[in-house]
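Key result, reporting period 2: structure in, sequence out.
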């Protein structure tokens, strides 16, 4: 039985016992490679399949998932059972068919699943790393494609092919390490050799870093470091669910100047990226959403469940992770602003990445993280390496006054972001 026939069978059977039913499944093949001791250690082909079912009866929502297509009836029964013990909520129905005006692509026909292709990417990673005197201690490459269809009993059926080419490499030289990565739906975007060279360069150049005294400094967060911190604090603050539950610092602030006037934040599902899509994970048509415009808070993100509960309506912001049910998220989120000057022209501490961003307080915005591969930066160039230290502060406060945005915009997961200069920040060193 093919996927579409299975979805139709689940919908027909589920509709006999519930008011509404939704089915979402993912099917794909993948190649995973692993680098061990500087060589290609493991290359494996695999096939994945998963299905998630949601049922609604009398406002009670139930859900379940399975990785075995032959157990779809058990999965449906489990969803119905979970719905019977769920608390009823305001519910306006799954989306109905709608005209889709935008177009989005997250699939590359040139990306072919084959061990030899992944092995070639690994070879390029290692060739790049060989340009510096380092040891390769880990990494890998893989191009997993997937087909993601969904449907509901209101007549919606949508599907999208999705591909991801991903590479990563970790290197070491004595006590200094370097890590780099890249991922894109499009194979042509990936320069594995450059990723390998950058990972090795970080480890080689970070050797013999000097201590930095505790104090306040101007800093430059690379796109990777900025994404790590903002992803743990700013993104949850824009979730309508957190806003309504009183867990967002931005609650009750729509229309206010909450950040620097040069900062804008928007979600563009039609831009090329890992989250490009014309429908969200519940079959709601997506659209470009501006959350912050020139520092002024404009809106929050909602999925169906939260939107109905609070009378807001979905913003087409539902996303899924694996076989989990849908939740509020973002498709291709951009942190943007005018590139007035290079943020590293004047002396500052440049930070490649941070460790421990997940410990940040998403409500207050407070954080304290270890900085990775820091350098003194001046005239736009990274000069002397710095021994690792701590960076502490508050996300919402630091975004109120931004020193500048770099021209090095980079896609980090579903977030596209430039380097950001922040003045007078707390570094805890020796």
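The corresponding designed sequence is given below.
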């Amino acid at each position: 039985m093919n996927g579409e026939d299975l979805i139709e069978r689940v919908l027909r059977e589920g509709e006999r016992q519930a008011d509404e039913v939704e089915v979402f499944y993912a099917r794909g093949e993948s190649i995973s490679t692993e680098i061990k001791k500087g060589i290609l250690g493991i290359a494996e082909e695999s096939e994945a399949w998963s299905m998630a079912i949601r049922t609604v009866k009398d406002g009670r929502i139930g859900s379940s998932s399975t990785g075995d297509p032959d157990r779809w009836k058990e999965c449906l029964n489990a969803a119905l059972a979970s719905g019977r013990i769920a608390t009823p909520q305001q519910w306006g129905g799954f989306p109905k068919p709608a005209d889709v005006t935008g177009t989005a692509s997250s699939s590359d026909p040139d990306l072919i699943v084959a061990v030899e292709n992944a092995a070639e990417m690994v070879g390029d990673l290692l060739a790049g790393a060989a340009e510096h005197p380092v040891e390769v201690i880990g990494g890998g490459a893989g191009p997993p494609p997937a087909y993601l269809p969904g449907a509901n009993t209101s007549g919606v059926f949508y599907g999208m092919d999705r591909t991801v080419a991903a590479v990563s490499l970790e290197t070491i030289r004595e006590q200094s390490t370097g890590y780099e990565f890249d991922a894109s739906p499009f194979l042509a975007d990936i320069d594995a050799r450059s990723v390998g060279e950058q990972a090795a360069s970080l480890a080689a150049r970070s050797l013999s870093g000097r201590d930095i005294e505790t104090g306040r400094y101007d800093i430059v967060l690379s796109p990777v470091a900025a994404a790590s911190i903002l992803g743990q604090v700013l993104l949850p603050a824009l979730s309508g669910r957190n806003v309504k539950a009183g867990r967002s610092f931005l609650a009750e602030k729509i229309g206010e100047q909450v950040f620097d006037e040069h900062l804008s934040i928007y979600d563009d599902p039609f831009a090329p990226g890992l989250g490009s899509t014309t429908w969200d994970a519940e079959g709601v048509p997506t659209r470009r959403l501006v959350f912050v415009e020139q520092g002024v808070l404009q809106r929050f993100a909602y999925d169906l469940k939260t939107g109905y509960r609070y009378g807001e309506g979905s913003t087409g912001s539902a996303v899924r992770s694996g076989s989990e049910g849908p939740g509020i998220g973002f498709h291709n989120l951009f942190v943007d602003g005018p590139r007035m000057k290079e943020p590293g022209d004047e002396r500052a501490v440049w930070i490649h990445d941070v460790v421990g961003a997940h410990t940040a307080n998403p409500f207050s915005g407070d954080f304290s993280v270890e900085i990775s591969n820091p350098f003194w930066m001046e005239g736009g160039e990274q000069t002397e390496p710095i021994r690792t230290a701590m960076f502490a502060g508050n996300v919402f406060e630091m975004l109120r006054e931004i020193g500048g945005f770099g021209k090095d915009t980079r896609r980090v997961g579903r977030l596209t972001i430039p380097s950001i200069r922040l003045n007078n920040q707390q570094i805890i060193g020796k």
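Residues 311 and 401 are 34 Å apart (CA to CA). The radius of gyration is 23 Å. This case is discussed further under Risks and Mitigation.
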